[in-house]
Amino acid sequence: MATISRPAPALPAQATRAARPRWGARLAPYGYLAPFFVLFAAFGLFPLLYTAYVSLHRVELQTADRMDWLGLQNYTRLFEDPFFWNALRNTFTIGVLSTVPQLLLALGLAHLLNYRLRGRTFFRVAMLMPYATSVAAATLVFAQLFGRDYGLINWVLAGVGLSPVDWQADTWASQFGVSAIVTWRWTGYNALIYLAGMQAIPGELYESAAMDGASRWQQFRHVTVPGLRPTIIFTVVVSTIGASQLFGEPLLYEGNAGGGISHQYQTLGLYMYEQGWSFFHLGRAAAVAWVMFLLIVVLALINAAIAARRNRTDR
Question: Which positions, given as ranges, span the membrane (predicted)?
């Protein structure tokens, strides 16, 4: 007996409309993302573009509403200024003096905290205390410690028979003093980042290395460091960007925007502040800001290229 197939009953128009996603549901993700883009455009993108526009004009702080077109003259005068190159050199040296010891100490401290120690929680919280301390408070304390006549550091040096050091007038000593502040504030922060990366490394790798007779130092070299390579690259990039933007520590170390008597520790951040708020040249300060921005972009690209090359060689 033949069976007769009947067509499926058509769904009501109301059910069909309910099955389709409404315009509100389609636009909801964009609505959730809109506040971020609005805030970014208002407080990130617009100031960046406006600073580029100001850098092409002569703008004085007393008459900020008046702009005279200069083109690239602010940049050419900037590159002809020896104090700009001095600030760039100081930024590089202070960045190296603060970044390299900071990351090495953070890596060592994280390695120690990765083992089972009594009071590990206390030590982890204590490492964040310097980061939680304000820049002003930390710099003022270190400025007293590095004082020439009554500083604790020179008192200790005199106790062991060494001559006192002028930590604020000497070029290398003052740069070391500023670097010590940066290192003290950021070592614990980077140590916790490294510790989080270490805890993501599988424990079976350490057990296998221990069974093969590897010491703790060998485990650190051949297991921990390769497993932390992406984290190390991240901290290097972030620390490099932070070093190129140093401002609060050198400003408060002696209390002037010149960076010492002979500008011996004036960074690019201080140089920009001096041009804009001491000499009232807002156009030239905007040019310095854009040079710093381009420098950060170049440093980030160099770090990314080095990381990509290391990844290709490891495969």
Answer: 30-53, 92-113, 125-146, 287-308
